[in-house]
């Protein structure tokens, strides 16, 4: 298992400065991680730092609460892609999902998925499982797949908890297509990462990628 290829090396703290961003890019190049995931304001820095490498540039959108209006999320995604993002991790409107407004959720995801795919970028959809019951997870799996997003992702890391193995099992139960799964939030050890990969995750979001690889 090439665990490094599963890792989205992540730095989303609001107090991150440019030196911090460059440092995680250097780490990602050394360990050949899948991507470096940062806030939109840092995308251009990452894209430049990762030039001539296989490491992808990833940006979060609608982060961390997903409460921006859809037009703002779309603009944010389009700007991140213009700045060099090849992967977008967007947060859904969790309140709309909990209200049962799956039409809104699907439409918003599809709008951003279409913008991403137009520019050959991937879309990962953060559903913040800590707030969801099984029925909500069933609903959001359908939303993600009906919108043609590439991944479903557990968590922002800013909710009441991060990923759980039950989350992944429920995703596997309700996903009907070949949508990939990203686990994130609270994954700090090699054993954690191995467990999620063995459960079927294609990506691991973590700020501790170096510690995981070095064991």
Automatic annotation (TrEMBL):
Enzyme class label: lyase
Catalytic activity entry: 2-deoxy-D-ribose 5-phosphate = D-glyceraldehyde 3-phosphate + acetaldehyde
Cellular location(s): Cytoplasm
Main location: cytoplasm
Residues forming the catalytic site: 89, 153, 182
GO BP terms: 2-deoxyribose 1-phosphate catabolic process; carbohydrate catabolic process; deoxyribonucleotide catabolic process
Catalytic activity, EC: 4.1.2.4
CC annotations in GO: cytoplasm
Pfam families: DeoC
InterPro entries attached to this UniProt entry: Aldolase_TIM (IPR013785), DeoC (IPR011343), DeoC/FbaB/LacD_aldolase (IPR002915), DeoC_typeI (IPR028581)
The keyword Lyase is assigned to this record: yes
UniProt pathway annotation: Carbohydrate degradation; 2-deoxy-D-ribose 1-phosphate degradation; D-glyceraldehyde 3-phosphate and acetaldehyde from 2-deoxy-alpha-D-ribose 1-phosphate: step 2/2
Domain of life: Bacteria
Signal sequence region: none
Keyword hit for Cytoplasm: yes
Keywords in alphabetical order: Cytoplasm, Lyase, Schiff base
Matching PANTHER family: DEOXYRIBOSE-PHOSPHATE ALDOLASE (PTHR10889:SF1)
Function, in words: Catalyzes a reversible aldol reaction between acetaldehyde and D-glyceraldehyde 3-phosphate to generate 2-deoxy-D-ribose 5-phosphate.
Stated family: Belongs to the DeoC/FbaB aldolase family. DeoC type 1 subfamily.
Protein name according to UniProt: Deoxyribose-phosphate aldolase
The encoding gene: deoC
């Amino acid at each position: 298992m090439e665990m490094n290829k599963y890792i989205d090396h992540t730095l989303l703290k609001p107090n991150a400065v440019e030196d911090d961003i460059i440092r995680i890019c250097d780490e990602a190049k050394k360990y050949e991680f899948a991507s470096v995931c940062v806030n939109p304001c840092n995308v251009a820095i990452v894209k430049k730092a990762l030039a001539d490498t296989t490491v992808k540039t990833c940006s979060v959108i609608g982060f961390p609460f997903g409460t921006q209006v859809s037009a703002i999320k779309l603009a944010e995604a389009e700007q991140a892609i213009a700045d060099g993002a090849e992967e977008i991790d967007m947060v859904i409107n969790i309140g709309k999902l909990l209200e049962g407004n799956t039409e809104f959720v699907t439409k918003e995801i599809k709008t951003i998925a279409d913008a991403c795919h137009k520019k050959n970028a991937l879309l990962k959809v953060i559903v913040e499982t800590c707030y969801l019951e099984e029925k909500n997870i069933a609903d959001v799996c359908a939303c993600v797949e009906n919108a043609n997003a590439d991944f479903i992702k557990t968590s922002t890391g800013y909710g009441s908890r991060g990923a759980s193995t039950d989350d992944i099992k429920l995703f596997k139960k309700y996903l009907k297509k070949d949508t990939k799964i990203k686990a994130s939030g609270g994954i700090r050890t090699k054993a954690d990462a191995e467990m999620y990969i063995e459960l079927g995750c294609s990506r691991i979001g973590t700020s501790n990628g170096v510690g995981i690889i070095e064991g």
